[in-house]
Design brief:
Blueprint lengths: L1 E5 L3 E7 L13 E7 L1 H11 L4 E8 H13 L3 E2 L2 E3 L4 E8 L1 E5 L8 H11 L7 E5 L10 H12 L2 E5 L2 H8 L5 E2 L3 H8 L6 H14 L4 E4 L5 E4 L4 E4 L12 H16 L2 H16 L7 H8 L4 E3 L1
Parallel strand pairs: 1-4, 1-9, 2-7, 4-5, 4-6, 9-10, 10-11
Antiparallel strand pairs: 2-3, 7-8, 12-13, 13-14, 14-15
Helix pairs in contact: 1-8, 8-9, 9-10
The protein binds adenosine-5'-triphosphate and 1-O-phosphono-beta-D-fructofuranose.
């Protein structure tokens, strides 16, 4: 079974204005409320692909109920810990460019945190746990460490999609997959990366530290898959970009959902890229129909 963990879910409130005037009254052309948070996005894409999964994490208040209802409507399995505080609302402002304002996240009480750890203690060998997104400050910076320890104790595989020290600390525990984008990879090592060779060099360092597979996404510029033995490049399909929010999560969903079937790495890479692009070309997240259509446009080359 695949599990996603979203410690800090959100309602993504997508607001479109023609011309943003700061310090003035702006009126929306269009708005949309979506269940959000990185792990929840991964679950929604896994669901499109027919990959059985359960979404875990913390949900609370009217915002939490909205998210839960939306996931139920899509028949996504959930097992969230209910918290007393309200789940956050993240603003995604489209005004020619995309400006995001993400909330810090609710207060999580110690007994609520313990509730999630307890749910994860039922994991089994063969399970894959996808840990994605920010950690609400009240949980403490080491909360991913605690979740990873439970994965190790239960012999479940884990994927981690976060940045900075939390990602670096996770590597020694041998995640099945990490997926920094090219900017995050450079930041992680405090360097500037200008060439594909440099991307591969730094991507390999993540493998040497413990990651089993490394995906490096470069938005519209393609993606790299680095394994212990090989490096592959994928082209990305061409299309009109409508929304980049959740493209990275969709890529993880496409990759893990496919890899979980028969461990076919290159097919997982292809589906990961197609899923990321299908989201980039949609108002909401990728649909199975568009993923399948884009899949055949992805060209993978061994470097
Ligand atoms: N402009 C684009 N054209 C085509 N595909 C895209 C584009 N932007 C993103 N994608 C697809 O989505 C994948 C992930 O994109 P990106 O590198 O932006 O990840 P990310 O930075 O983690 O995304 P996010 O915006 O969700 O944080 C890419 O590998 C690609 O398949
Ligand atoms: O604040 P975090 O947890 O880093 O990111 C949260 C978030 O921006 O990530 C998703 C897109 O990847 C959105 O659904 C959500 O609003």
């Amino acid at each position: 079974m695949i599990y996603t963990v979203t410690l800090n879910p959100s309602i993504d409130y997508i607001v479109e204005v023609d011309d943003l005037k700061l310090g003035d009254l702006n009126r929306m052309n269009r708005d949309l409320k979506l269940p959000g948070g990185k792990g929840i996005n991964v679950s929604r894409v896994l669901n499109q692909l027919g990959a059985e999964n359960t979404a875990l994490g913390f949900l609370g208040g009217f915002t939490g109920r909205f998210i839960n209802d939306k996931l139920q409507e899509d028949e996504i399995q959930t097992d969230f810990v209910t918290i007393a505080d309200d789940t956050r609302i993240n603003i995604k402002l489209k005004h020619g460019e995309e400006t995001e304002i993400n909330g810090l996240g609710p207060a999580i009480r110690p007994e609520e945190a313990a509730g999630l750890l307890n749910k994860l203690s039922a994991l089994q060998k063969g399970d894959i746990v996808i840990l994605s997104g920010s950690v609400p400050p009240s949980l403490g910076a080491d909360f991913y460490d605690r979740l990873i320890n439970v994965c190790k104790q239960t012999s479940a595989e884990f994927v981690i999609d976060t940045t900075g020290p939390a990602l670096m600390d996770a590597l020694v525990h041998e995640p099945l997959l990490v997926k920094p984008n090219h900017h995050e990879l450079a930041e992680l090592f405090g360097v500037t990366i200008d060439t594909q060779e440099e991307l591969v060099t730094y991507g390999r360092k993540l493998l040497e530290t413990g990651a089993k597979h490394v995906l490096i996404s470069m938005a519209g510029e393609g993606a790299l898959l680095i394994t212990k033995t090989d490096v592959y490049h994928a082209s990305v399909p061409k299309g009109v970009v409508k929304n980049s929010v959740g493209a990275g999560d969709s890529m993880i969903g496409g990759f893990v959902g496919t890899f979980g079937l028969n461990e076919d790495l290159l097919e997982a890479f292809r589906m990961g890229v197609a899923s990321g692009s299908a989201t980039a070309f949609s108002d909401d997240l990728a649909t199975r129909e568009l993923i399948e259509k884009l899949r055949i446009q992805v060209i993978i080359t061994k470097l």
